[in-house]
Structures are given as C-alpha cells and as structure tokens.
What does this fold into?
Amino acid sequence: MEDMNLMLCAISAAALDICALVLIIASYRERSTGNKQWKKISANMELVEQGFTYQLGCDEILIGRHASADIRLPDISVSRYHAMLTVADGVWTITDIGSKSGVYVNGNLVKSRKLHENDVITLGNRKLTLRKIADNKKAKKRNS
Amino acid sequence: MIKNPFAYLFSCLFVLAAHGAMLINIFYNGKYDDIKDLIILAAAVLGLDISYYIIMLFFKQYTYTIDFMLLLVLNMSVIFQSCFGGVSFSVKHYVTCIAALIACRFGHILTYNHNWIQQQKKYIWLGIGILMVIILTLTGSRSMWINIGSFSIQPSEFMKPLLVLACATSITEQQNKHKVWKFDIVWENIILLGITGAVCLLQWWCRDLGSIPTFAAIYAAGFFLRICYPKAKFSNKTLIIAGSVVLVAVIIGIRVAPEYVRDRLFVDIWSDKDGNGYQQSQALIAIADGGWFGKGPGKGFLHNVFAHESDIVFSSISEEWGLLYAIMMTLVILLIAASPLINPPRSYYHGTMCAGICAAFTVQMALNIFGSCNMIPFTGVTIPFISMGGSSMVTSGFMAGMLVAAQSPVFRKPKPKKKKSAPVRRRSAA
It folds into this structure.
C-alpha cells in the first residue's frame, strides 16, 4: 500500500513536470509563428533616404545619432536619441523623444503622429520617406 | 484560426493529464468521507479545463502558453484548497479562480495595444488616487479589508497592476531631463517615486507591511528599466547608488518598524512556539512531516492552524502532497513569470510591464515561502494563484493577462475606414 501511494505521488509529480515541459516547447513554437506573422503584417514598410534603405524589423525603432540607435543618422543636426518609431495594430507612429531640432512630418512639427505611406519625416537636416516594400520591388522590376 | 493547432491540442491534453493524475492520487491516496465529494471536485476541475479550452478559441492570440499555465496552476490550487483536512469541494475558491480567468482576459484586452494603453496614463493615475482615497476612508488604520456582507475586499491588491502600468507608461519622458543642481532629473520618475512612497505609507498605516516590499519591487523594476531607456547600459555607478539606497531604506525601515514587527523579525520560533512563532513552527513541522511525497491529500494536520490556506499554504501543500510537488508548483508559477524570456515582448513598454509583474510575483512568492520556512520574518503575503483570497486571485489573474498581452500584442492590420461620401449638391432648376 505504501509503495502504491509513493508511486501515485511520483506519477502526479511526473505528469506536472511533463506538462510544464510541453508548455515550454509549445511556447517556443508559438514564438516562431508569432515572428512570422509580425513580419507578414508589420514589416512591409521601410524608410528610404537618398538611396539608403532602412528595414523596420521590430516594434520599436530608435532613430538618432548615437551608436546604439537602431537607425543611426550621423549628422550633428540629429539628436543622439531623436525619435522613436513604433508599430501597433499595423499602424506606424513616430514620437519625438526630446530632440533639440524636433520632428517634422510632411513639413509639420509634431510631438507624436501616426504615419501613412509616403510621409516625409524630417529630423534635423535629414529627410526620410516611409514606403511600402512591395512598391519598391515593383519599381525595381519596372526599371529592370 | 489557431496558428499552431498541434501545440494547442497537446497543451490541452497534458494540462488535463496533470489534473487527472492529481485526481487519481486523491482517489487512491486521499481522505474523503463520500466519493461524491471527489466526483464533484473532478467534474468541476475537468469541466473548467474543457470550458476554458473552448473559450480561448474565440480569442485571437499568437501565444496561449500563459493561458494554459494559468489554467494548470488555478485548477491545481482548486484541488489543493479542496483537500485541506479532507476532500470537500471549495466552492468559494473555485469562484475566485473563474474570476481570475476572466480578469486575465480583461488584462489582455486592455494592454495588448501599447500605443493605446500609454494614452490612458491619466486614468491609471486617477485609479491609483481613487484606491488611495478608498483605503484612507473605508479601511481602518489597523485593517486592510473592506467588509461587504460576507465578502471582504483588500483594495491595496488592485493597486499592484495599476502601479505596474504607471511605471511602464510615458517611458519616452525619460529623455526630458532637467538639470537641478548637479543632477539630471526626470520629473515623472520623481512623481512615480512619490506615488510609490505614498502607497507604501498607506500600507504602513493599514498595518499591511507585507505588501510594502512588493510595491517597492514593482517601482524598482520599472525605475531601472526607465533609466535604461532607450538603449543606454547600466553603469556600475548607478547600480552601486541604487543598491546603497535600498540598503539604507531597509535599515531605516527596520529601525522605525513598530514593536510587533520587530518582535517578529527577531523572534526565536522554537522558544516561543505558542506565541509569535506558533504559525512558523507548525508550518516547519508540517513540511518535515510531509517529507518528499506527502502524507496524502486531506491527511494533514495543518488545516487546524490559522491561515493554513493563505499565509502558510506552501507548508500545507508540502504536508499533504509532498515537498517535491510543492517545489514543482512553485516552479510552474515562476515559469509564468519567466515566460517573457522565452517569448520576449516586442516593445519597451511591454518589457517594462513584464519586469514589474515578474518582480511582484517573485517577491510575493519569496515572502510567503521563505516566511513559512523561517528563513525571513513571517509577513502574511499570499502566493499568487494558490493562496485563498478573491482580491489577490483577481489581481494575479489580471497581471497574468498583462503578460499574455506582452507576448501576444496586436499585429493585425487595421480595417480601412469607410469614406463618407460627400453630399451631392444639386443645382436647383431655377
């Protein structure tokens, strides 16, 4: 009887262990699916500046002069941490994070603004355009 | 449509298997007067499992792991709470578990869009203010409860998720530094420090001293992530200063603590077994009695001790189910808190939110478990999801929902708004 009690306790403990393990594996699987889905929906935009293209690969993109910025603009007119690009619900937003020269969208000074395709963002002396990736590829094809 | 149907199916089956194994253990090894009690318990647990699997299908998420872990832990707690001192279905705890699951859904819906929730800053601060006024006016200076009929509510519990949200919102303000004397000061950090200080003072006034470390941990996690924003690294100087401030605060706290707290801090539980050390000594005896595999569900004696289902619940579980099972239960809760490491949040806001929640869960668990084991002073803090208590369960469920939101933010494209057609002007015949 004592052995059986011990065995039952061990079985219920093992079941809990295996369940936790399965949930961890499932979580890893869900992460890769989530990343794919995110890329499909949110990563279809890019920033273009005079021939340079910056890919927007995560939810928050820091733009500034500092070496740790995601998009680095080595220009004295751009603050070290100038602006933050964020995406939620498929909508990109730019927020001024305390820059000296401000953030302009289509020529208007903004603190925070939702962005649309082909909006021109001015940070100091630099001008960046938000474009759809697919359109660019089509243009390249047309050019070729 | 679920993106990973196999992962979902396997998770469902293994959670059911874990609960099934516990119920079989009770059937052969537990103490019950009537088999009906066990059948009701099994039906309730397995019924909740299956119902939640179906309900979850209506929520479009990219990860369901935390939901499954939450369900696993909540139904485990229903089984534990129903077995203390003999098997009988604990309806009250079951209802609070369902409330926690509903709160989890709300937590997810409210916080999954980080842009939207950051715009609600004034409402978050207003919520904290209202709760503080409620505590000041409706609870007494030596009580943390509001009694409404047979229900008791602990309003300070609801302040935890609000403080987490307050610490995470408007993090971009971190860049607006102002030079005051020799220091670069961010006013929002000072305001948050003031709010946390006021909350802690209020807890002191209510004699709910156990909650103070939890609030302090939430603020500390939020503060550290704020001063790191957006990409700066921790400097050793910052860490040394922060460590020194914490040390000084603890020393001052011990010095000015009320007498009954200092008694608890320095009590030798074995020489005062019938006084201040009663609960802890009984809890330690129970853990030793249970051994690795426990006495069997319902066969413990700790249910005779006050707060066996909340403050010393770890010892009650160790006694009946064994220390091994109690440690594994703890690990599953830690896994919920650590899940952002597997599936990292995609925004700084959600990252800060997760850090605050992890800090709250970890500190609460540490205070409860180490307090039961006489490694630190006994505080009377609950273990999230396990201890009995409606306010604690709902708050913990809400915070679990916030973790789900951080790992499953909204990705979908917004539906294009229908353009209103301009009114057609008709020229009059004249």
About this structure: Helices of chain A lie at 2-41, 133-143. Chain A touches chain B through 50 residues (CB under 8 Å). The first helix of chain A runs from residue 2 to 41. Chain A has a mean pLDDT of 83.
